[in-house]
Structures are given as structure tokens and as C-alpha cells.
């Protein structure tokens, strides 16, 4: 009898701990909606949309400032980046970053913003402190992914048309290397000493060694029952401990879960239609996936590797940002 009581007490304690861990997820999510010209603001604890303010024409990529007080929003059809005050819940400025901005990244000190201009085949560097363009570099056709090196000295930019990653020296304001990768490279993720590049039209990720900017290998994806032509990887996210990478597989409607040390695929998670934008909660317990063709957000339990909730977040959601 005593043994049964002890087991029951242990089970109750474990359940309470699990519940506490689940309840610890809080804060807000911001999800950009390209067709609604708005961002959905989601209560992360309740998993409810609390507001959907209109911000600009065709909001796409978003990123928080290092102090988390400002949310920068790429406005594709406004030729600008909107600046959203997180506390005041309103747009407080618009930055002229050139034609058709899609993706961008901030320098580590938060003083510079680097945006890809899809129609102009350019990377624009914008001085946030001085509120002015600093310089522009011509790149290959349809640039998209942008990633700044941890020391702020280099900017990596993908060209979908050229099939390369450009390496731009910030001080010299010029391309210093072009790295050939796969077909239609889209997004970038720094994983330790590697730069991961999603190749939308050949179903995999190229692995670039940052030390010498050479391609060291690739990871291929094919969820069970899917056709290879439907595997169109775009967005990626990294767990807080750096041990797991998540890759959105686009029209395959799955997310690949990858061990970053071994480069092995641990499994696939079924989500919504055209999974692109990904973000991870600060504690790593949840993955949020924006599904561009089903107009919703899938909430994934990362431990169980399965979706636990789906939220309607507006038409053609693009990017998810976690504010905890």
C-alpha cells in the first residue's frame, strides 16, 4: 500500500512539474500577414490572437532590436522597414531601405540594418542611429536571406537566381566571395562554426564552414509519403541550446528536426500548408510554424515532436517572432 502511495505521489509530482513547465511559456508572438497588411499579436500562454493591427503594405520578415523594445518589419510594397514600438503597440517610424525589402538582419550592436532588395538585386545597409542609408552593394538576382556574422564584419546574402551565397565585407563595402550552393537558396542560419543554407528547389540544406567559406556537405529531406518535388525548404530555427535545428519544408507540409552535431534527421513533424516561417520559444519547449497557404500557425511540442494547436493568424503568414 505504501509503495502504491509513493508511486502515486511521484506521478503527481511529475505531472505538476510538466504542467509548470508548460505554463512557463508566456509573452507574445508577432506573426506578419502579407495579404492582410497586418501583424497578428498572439498571447503565447493562452494561444489566442489578441489583436491584428494594420502596419504596412505586405509585411514580411520581422526582427526585434537587441533591447527588445522595437520590432522591425520589412514592408515589401511600401519600400520601407516599419519600426513598431512594442510597449506603445504602434508604428513610430518608417525607414527607407530601397525597393521591395524582404529579409534583413541587424548588426550585433543593433546600430545597422542590412536588407535584401529583391527587385533591385542589392543589399542595402541602413544606419539606424543616423536614420539614413549607409551604402548599397549589387548582388545576384532575387536576393533573399541575410545574416550578419557574430563580429559584425561580414554579411551573408543568398541569391535565388545565381544559386550562391555572397560574402560581403562591411568595411570594404564589397563582395569578397561567392559560394555556390544548391538551387534557389533562400534562408540562412548560423549553427556554431557552420552556415546553413536552405535550397528550395533541391530539397536540402548546404553546410558551409565559416572558417574558410567552403561547402562541407548537405542534408537532404524526404518525409514519408511525400514526393521529392514537394520538399521546398525555406525557413529555419535553432533550439536555445544549439543542439537541434528545425527546417520548414514548404509544400511538403512538414518540419524536419535535425541533430546539429551529427547532421542526422531525427524526425518530421506534420504542420500546415507551405511551412516557411519558424521560431522557437525561449525555453525550447515550443516551435511556432507559420503556414503560408493554410493561413495559420502551428504550435509544436518539441519534446513530443508533434503539433498541439493550430491558430488562424491572417492571410499568408510570413514570419513569427517570439517576445518573451
Describe the structure.
This protein is mainly beta and 324 residues long. It folds into two domains: 56-210, Methylamine Dehydrogenase, Chain H (7 Propeller), CATH 2.130.10; 221-324, Neuraminidase. 7% of the residues lie in helices and 52% in strands. It has one helix and 28 strands. The strands form seven sheets. A four-stranded antiparallel beta sheet has the order 3-2-1-28, with no helix packed on it. It has a four-stranded antiparallel beta sheet with strand order 4-5-6-7, with no helix packed on it. It has a four-stranded antiparallel beta sheet with strand order 8-9-10-11, with no helix packed on it. The longest helix has 22 residues, at 2-23. Mean pLDDT is 94; it is low at 1-23. It holds the Pfam family YNCE. Residues 78-187 form the YNCE-like beta-propeller domain. InterPro entries: Host-pathogen_enzymatic-act (IPR051200), N2O_reductase_N (IPR011045), PQQ_b_propeller (IPR022456), WD40/YVTN_repeat-like_dom_sf (IPR015943), YNCE-like_beta-prop (IPR048433), YVTN_b-propeller_repeat (IPR011964). Residues 1-23 form the signal peptide. It comes from Ramlibacter ginsenosidimutans.
Short structural description:
The protein has 324 residues and is mainly beta. It has one helix at 2-23, and strands at 28-33, 38-43, 48-51, 59-64, 70-75, 80-85, 90-95, 101-106, 112-117, 122-127, 132-138, 143-148, 154-159, 164-169, 174-180, 185-191, 194-199, 204-209, 214-220, 236-238, 244-248, 254-259, 265-270, 275-280, 286-291, 296-301, 306-312, 317-323.
Amino acid at each position: 500500500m505504501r509503495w502504491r502511495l509513493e508511486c502515486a505521489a511521484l506521478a503527481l509530482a511529475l505531472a505538476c512539474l510538466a504542467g509548470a513547465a508548460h505554463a512557463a511559456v508566456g509573452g507574445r508572438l508577432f506573426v506578419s500577414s502579407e495579404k492582410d497588411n497586418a501583424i497578428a499579436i498572439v498571447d503565447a500562454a493562452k494561444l489566442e490572437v489578441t489583436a491584428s493591427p494594420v502596419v504596412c503594405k505586405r509585411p514580411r520578415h520581422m526582427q526585434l532590436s537587441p533591447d527588445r523594445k522595437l520590432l522591425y518589419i520589412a514592408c515589401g510594397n511600401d519600400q520601407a522597414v516599419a519600426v513598431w514600438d512594442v510597449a506603445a503597440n504602434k508604428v513610430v517610424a518608417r525607414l527607407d531601405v530601397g525597393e521591395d525589402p524582404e529579409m534583413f538582419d541587424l548588426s550585433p550592436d543593433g546600430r545597422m540594418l542590412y536588407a535584401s532588395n529583391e527587385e533591385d538585386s542589392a543589399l542595402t545597409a541602413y544606419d539606424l542611429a543616423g536614420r539614413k542609408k549607409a551604402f548599397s552593394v549589387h548582388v545576384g538576382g532575387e536576393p533573399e536571406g541575410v545574416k550578419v556574422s557574430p563580429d559584425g564584419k561580414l554579411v551573408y546574402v543568398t541569391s535565388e537566381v545565381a544559386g550562391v551565397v555572397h560574402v560581403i565585407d562591411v568595411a570594404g563595402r564589397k563582395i569578397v566571395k561567392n559560394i555556390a550552393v544548391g538551387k534557389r537558396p533562400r534562408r540562412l542560419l548560423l549553427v556554431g562554426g557552420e552556415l546553413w543554407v536552405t535550397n528550395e528547389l533541391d530539397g536540402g540544406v548546404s553546410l558551409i564552414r565559416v572558417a574558410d567559406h567552403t561547402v562541407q556537405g548537405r542534408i537532404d529531406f524526404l518525409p514519408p509519403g511525400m514526393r521529392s518535388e514537394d520538399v521546398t525548404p525555406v525557413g529555419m530555427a535553432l533550439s536555445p541550446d544549439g543542439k537541434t535545428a528545425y527546417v520548414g519544408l514548404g509544400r511538403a507540409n512538414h518540419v524536419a528536426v535535425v541533430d546539429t552535431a551529427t547532421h542526422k534527421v531525427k524526425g518530421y513533424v506534420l504542420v500546415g500548408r507551405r511551412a516557411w516561417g519558424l521560431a522557437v520559444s525561449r525555453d525550447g519547449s515550443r516551435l511556432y510554424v507559420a503556414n503560408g497557404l493554410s493561413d495559420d500557425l502551428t504550435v509544436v511540442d518539441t519534446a513530443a515532436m508533434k503539433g498541439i494547436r493550430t491558430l488562424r493568424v491572417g492571410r499568408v503568414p510570413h514570419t513569427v517572432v517570439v517576445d518573451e
